[in-house]
Each structure stands twice: as structure tokens, then as C-alpha cells.
């Protein structure tokens, strides 16, 4: 009976927390930005690579060019046009102190679209970030502002929708504003993990515990641990009545009825969103594609407005007694899941020791190998890391240095570190000018132009992996989707960009000697025919000038008829 009363009291506390959070924001002030029912593909706070998801992904039934409307009265205060990220985006500032953001759009409403186009031609630049005054583009609630799309860093047609505090620019959880999205499904728990906190969550790493569901509660066998100081993490997803797996909104951890940790995802700043890597088991996320969220605070995790203050989540088991553990997960509608188990400390295992290459949260560190130097800031790591760096002979035909292995690609770093690397042979000044530093982190590569100081090239990165110096003298190129000189009746021209190392960092198109607006879509460059090149306009010469990361410039000329 006492346990039941404690549980009911705790439920009341959690309900009060959620009700209070929702009461802080206007309810039903903002409307659905689409003219179809809201269905979520992703919610606020869902785990993404190196960041939390900062808004709602609204499904568009796998279609593009659906009407996107203003969620409330206000004015267009900003637009962005970019290759990745938001793609085409609209920001609307509202008189109640909030700004809404609409991203991955195909097209702005006609008057705004024409303004942006004129600015692009005036600047001779496709990418734009334009700030507007209140009187330029006022909008009313429900007014068409754009057509939905799949631009920028989007993996499929949808609308990304955010609500921000206009003054602070913090992103707020849109579900706190009273949108009608039916949800009667509680979060689903599929795994429990514990960590030896005498040293670090990275060594020896996660210890998995099988979870089984009994009625509305999840349980495990008693958790026997070999450390007197541990923390827990949970693998779980939330679900709405319709939609995909969503991120968990709120979690609480209790030991013997006492709250020892809690988090809720109400608001996040873009300046802080990378701290997500200190809230999850990053190794599991990158290596095993598993989203496991810590129920404790890592020493270098400084995300504001996330975890309950003064609650670390570190569990002390020195007494070797059996302790009751309860984990409560809740979505924003109050649907609740519970995991109940017991934990006990047995004989301790050996503790991982520190080394002279251990990087500690809050302390900068310089790691040196024979031909490289790596400088980490005091904010580099979320937990203690026995850093391992070594060199291997370069095997790439264009490599002009040894390969520098930087610990493991499965461990995160929070901010940029500076790497200095020496070539393994003498380079001329011309060769130095064509040298780039390449970081291979498994799923992709980052390539930067080396800044030379004497016989060292310097670059900055924010991931770990294998680094080497590459000599790139090859020309970038584009390949057209038409045969030279043909009559083109299609709606657009498309050029596929390629470069042997790095990226195409500069692209310029001129049609008959005048700048022509090409949009960049991933690695392609696309021009949609308009008044600049109408049908029946005859023969045209298209001149393309591109530059890659190493600074190699190539000019190509193509012809076609309209």
C-alpha cells in the first residue's frame, strides 16, 4: 500500500511538471502549418547525429509542393537558402514574442520568391540569408507562405517546423503549445544499461540488461554489478498514434523511492544542441545505430534546461544491499511507462586507471605523436578519455604524410580541436598550396585546406578518426545531363559535380556571358528554365567555373538550343 501511495504521489508530481510547462506557453495560438492533419515523422528532442532534433518533422504524405501556411499573424523576418541544413526556409516573427520556422521548402510565395530571386541575381550568389523589416512581408494566420519540399539536409519530403523564443532564439518544444496530435501510446522500453562510474562511461562501456514487459510495466532480473559507483541508461522510443519512432520527452530515475535523476526536453539552443553527444551513449549510436539515453550527468555535459539541477544520477552501492530502482518515462500527453528492477553491488572489478594521455572534462590537453600534434580545448570531452594516438604508413597514392589514428571514431568530441601534421617528404611551395588534410571517420570524410606554418599543415576538426595529408592536383568537373549542342525541351538543366578529394567550394555559371542562377542540391547543380532562357531563344553557351577544396580551378563550356 505504501509503495502504491508513493507511485501515485510521483504521478501527481510529474503531471504537475508537464501541466506547468504547458501553461508557460500560449495554447492554440499557433495553427497547423499544413492543410492536412498533423502527423509526426520526428519530434522535438529526437536524437540525431551530433545534435538534438530542434522542431517537429511533419509528414506530407511523401509528396512535395503542399501548401505551407503561416501558423499565426506576423511578418517574414528572415529567409535562408542553403545547400544543406534547412535548404529553403522561412522565419515568421509573431507579436507574442515567438518566431516560427518552416524548412526544406521548394518555393516561397510569389512576391517573396521574386524578391529572393532578384537579390540572388544582384549578388550573383545562390545561397542567401536575408533579414527583413516588419513592414516588408506581413502575413496573416493561414496565409500561404511557401510550398513544401525536400531541400537541404532532408532525406524525404516533409516540413520541418520550429517555434523559437524571438529574444533568446532558443528552440521550444512545439508540442507544449497545444497542437492536436492524437497520442494514447506510452513510450516503449527495449533495453537497460549500466556503467561503471569509477572512471568513465567510455571504459569499459555499457553493460546490457535484458528487459521484459509485464502488463503495463517493464522488469528485469536483479542487476548484479561489480562497481560500487554506477549509472543507468535506457533504450526507448516514444510513439504517437500515427507516425514514426519518436524521441523520449521526459525520464525520471528513482532509487528506493528517492529521485536521483531526471530530464525533460522543453527548450534547446542551437549553440548547445551538440551537447546531445553527452546525453547519449555515443559509441552505441555511431557503431550500432542504437539510441540509448543516459540517466545521469556526464562531467562535461553542460546542456541547459535539460536535467534536474543537483541530481547527478550516480548511484552509490557501497553498502552492498539490494536497492529498488524505478525508471519512469513520459510523453508530453502524460502517457507513462515504468521499468522496475533491483540492483546490488558484488565484488569489485579492477578500476580503469588514468594515463599521461588521459583527457579530462574541463581541462585542455595536447597529444603528440612523431609527426603530429593535437590540441584539445577544455570543452573537448564529456567524460574522461584515455586518449590513444598512433601513426601508420600512408597507403593512399596521393598521401604525403603518415596516417594519424586519433583514438576511435566511436568517441565524441564537443568542439573543434586543432591538428598540426608534418609531411613525410619535402614539399615545394606549389605542392603545399595543393595539400589538404583529410579526416576519415568511417561514414564520411572531412577535408580542409591546410594552413602552413613552416613544415606543418594545420586544420580543425570536431570528430575523431584517421587523419592524413593529401596532395590534390586534380581538376574538379561537372557532367551535364544533356548532349552538347542539342535542343532542350525539359524544364531544367542539371550538372553533376565531382572532385577527387574534398568538395566543390565555388561554382559559377554564366549563360552567354551573364550570371545564371543554379541551385545546389547535394552534389548536383540545377537551373530551372525561366525568363533568362525562354523557349525559342536559340543557341546558348553555358560557361561553368568551379573550384575544389585544394584550390584547383576548372572552366568548362557547354552549348544547347532552346
From TrEMBL:
Q: Which Gene3D superfamilies match?
A: Glucose Permease (Domain IIA)
Instruction: Indicate the secretion signal residues.
Output: none
Q: Which Pfam families match?
A: Peptidase_M23
Q: Which residues form the M23ase beta-sheet core domain?
A: 52-120, 138-167
Q: Name a GO molecular-function annotation.
A: metalloendopeptidase activity
Enumerate the CDD domains for this protein. M23_peptidase
User: Which superkingdom is the protein from?
Assistant: Bacteria
- SUPFAM superfamilies attached to this UniProt entry: Duplicated hybrid motif
Please identify the protein, giving its name as recorded.
Answer: Metalloendopeptidase-like membrane protein
UniProt organism field? Chryseobacterium populi
